[in-house]
Structure formats: C-alpha cells, structure tokens
Specification:
Endonuclease I-creI; alpha+beta; single chain; Trna Endonuclease, Chain: A, domain 1; 4-stranded mixed beta sheet; about 50% helix; 4-stranded antiparallel beta sheet
Length: about 210
C-alpha cells in the first residue's frame, strides 16, 4: 500500500468509527497466514458486514481483490472499492436497516422541521428535550451538529437542544434516507420541495461553472 492510500485508509477508518462502526484494519503484503485479497477495512455497522477496499483515484483493485468483493456480496455482505469519505458515507447510508431509517423518520415526523430559504440551502432540524437520541442520530448518520441553547422560551420552559443539518450533501443524504419512511404528508411534501430546490441550485451552479 502506498503512503497516499495509507493516509486515506486512516481518514476513512476514523470516519467509520465516528459513525459508531467497529473497524478492523487488514495489513496486506506477503503474509503466509492471511488469505490474499481481503479488503483493507473490515467493518461491522448496524449489524451489517462490510468490506472496503481503499484506493486513491485512478487506481483499480487487483483481480483477486475483485473476486473477494464479489464473494462477500454473494454471501450477503456489503463490499466495495472506495476512494473518499463521500463514497463511504453513501455506502453506510445504504447499510442503515429499514427499521432504523423508519425510526429516524418517525422521530423527524414528530420533532423535526425542514426550513426552506430562497437565498440558501434548506435546513433540517430535530428538537428534543433529551439530547441522547439526537446524539445517536448524529452518530449513526454521520451528519449535523448539536446545538445547545440557554435560557427559557416564552412559556417559561427550558429551551430544548436540537440537531441541525445544514450542509448541502448532508441534507440530500438525510432526505434520501428518511423520505421513503415519512408518514405525515406535509412533512414528506416539504422534504420533496427541499430536494427539488437542491437539485435546481446544483444545476444552476454547474451551468455557471461551465460558462467561466
């Protein structure tokens, strides 16, 4: 493994652990006691077995690595070649069990809000007096930041903390993950509107880039 690849492996491993995954780094090379082609990172996330072969852009997996990836998939696991944290984030999202995604969607139905602004990206918030489930959602999805507010509201109650998701890519990931499980119609329509706004802003940005 080259130094650039080793650096990407360390970054991805740290990201996986930040999302609550258990990660094992496989050290390749001419090890007579280890089967050839095992992915760089073996991961357990939300009850799923995941094998990640980490490459720098432009590099491709070897034939034996491709074979092992196919065998893991055929056995019901998840395996892929990844080049960045963005690749890993989307892969982990696909590994979130439907029951977990449904629970998060239900939490958003009851405690969440999607703010739409014409001048900036949509913003997702989930508010709850008990911050523990919000921290869990933040960890599992690897997105957003916790906001702790001081003081009391107009009713005299302590202001509850909330999870704020504002980054464009994270908002898109959240919408894609929870939308199929949203039950309240007005919540679902709001998320669909936000998705359209984000797609429109992306196309406008791309056209501007193309003209410069």
């Amino acid at each position: 493994m080259t130094q650039p690849e080793a650096r990407i492996v360390r970054i991805i491993k740290a990201y996986l652990e930040s999302r609550g995954a258990r990660v094992f780094k496989i050290h390749g090379g001419d090890n007579p006691f280890q089967e050839a082609g095992i992915p760089d990172l073996i991961v357990c996330y939300q009850g799923q077995f995941i094998g990640l072969e980490v490459k720098i852009p432009g590099n491709k997996p070897s034939p034996i690595q491709r074979t092992i990836i196919k065998q893991i998939k055929a056995s019901g696991g998840i395996a892929a070649v990844v080049y960045s944290i963005e690749d890993v984030a989307l892969l982990l999202d696909s590994a979130v069990p439907p029951a977990v995604a449904g629970w998060i969607a239900g939490f958003f139905d009851g405690e969440g809000c999607c703010y739409l602004h014409q001048s900036r990206y949509p913003r997702i918030t989930i508010t709850q007096k008990d911050s523990e489930p919000l921290i869990w959602i933040q960890e599992v999805l690897g997105m957003g930041r916790m906001v702790y507010r001081k003081g009391r509201n107009q009713a005299g109650n302590l202001r509850a903390p909330y999870l704020s998701i504002t980054k464009r890519d994270e908002v898109i990931r959240f919408i894609d993950l929870v939308s199929p499980h949203i039950r309240l119609r007005h919540r679902r329509e709001k998320l669909e509107e936000a998705r359209i706004m984000l797609a429109r802003s992306s196309s406008i940005s791309s056209s501007r880039t193309g003209r410069t």
